[in-house]
Design goal:
By secondary structure, the protein is α/β, with parallel strands linked by helices. The protein contains 10 helices and 15 strands. The radius of gyration is 19 Å and the shape is globular.
Length: 257
């Protein structure tokens, strides 16, 4: 198969699936992983996709549910900066919810030595906090989803209704001024909607790649959150919009960005 034909087919695959791994493409086209990496590099240079360790993804599309193994290694510098900013908003004695986003996992690493009650449905967050003697850790069960390493479903929602939290840190797939805060997964959106009702303060954590896009399911409008924590360079239009919605902006600029 000609390289140009292979790259065209890779485009079709990623437009449908939104994310791909080097291993699966190597097997599909019976070429080396190095060949696939070169293909992905060329497609990234064309502005078609974003590469990460082990694969590539695109951020566009309403039903955009990127594979967790790729999300873990995407925008790591941004997520670390956001986690640092989040940690500064947490005080000893707080009750905190961490959702199943990869950014929340970075935050779990930052707070493991604090005296907190942490509620989560994320197995990744549990792994980070399970050995901490200062964390009162509550894991909300439900249907375990290996793709997200988290518990979801009706039982998870019912379990969350039993707890009232000082601060919730939740992510999303996309946010825009026109359509609010959205996600690609209905079960995850429902969990986040439940948290809005049981949290004293809700912070949206979102790296710059999520702005000015819209995904499949509406989570909430901006009136339902208290602040946004992001490495995004907020435009004057976004600043005015969020000020009108009474949403605090917590910026975490990255050196050299």
């Amino acid at each position: 198969m000609l390289a140009v034909t292979r790259k065209a087919q890779i485009k079709d695959i990623i437009l449908e699936k939104k994310s791909v791994t080097v291993v699966e493409l190597s097997r599909k086209f019976s070429v080396t992983e190095e060949t696939i990496r070169k293909d992905l590099q060329q497609l990234e240079n064309e502005g078609f996709l974003s590469r990460t360790y082990g694969g590539a993804f695109i951020q566009d599309g309403a039903l955009n549910d990127i594979d967790l193994t790729l999300r873990e290694t995407a925008y790591v510098e941004s997520k670390e900066a956001i986690a640092d900013k989040c940690a500064k908003l947490i005080r000893h004695g707080d009750s905190v919810f961490l959702d199943a986003s990869t950014t929340a996992t970075f935050l779990a690493k930052r707070i493991k030595n604090m005296r907190l009650t942490v509620v989560t449905n994320s197995l990744m967050a549990v792994d980070q906090l399970k050995d901490s003697e200062s964390i009162h850790l509550i894991c909300i069960g439900g249907i375990y989803t290996a793709k997200t390493r988290a518990f979801n479903g009706r039982a998870t929602v019912q379990g969350l209704k039993e707890y009232f939290l000082d601060k919730t840190f939740m992510s999303c797939r996309s946010l825009s001024m026109a359509h609010g805060i959205t996600d690609s997964n209905e079960d995850i959106a429902l969990i986040r909607q439940t948290l809005l009702k049981n949290s004293g303060c809700v912070y949206l954590i979102a790296d710059k790649s999520k702005f000015d896009k819209t995904s499949f399911v509406h989570i909430c409008d901006y009136e339902n959150i208290h602040g946004i924590i992001s490495d995004y360079q907020f435009t004057a239009e976004w600043r005015t919009f969020l000020e009108q919605k009474h949403v605090d902006i917590h910026e975490c600029g990255i050196t050299g960005a």
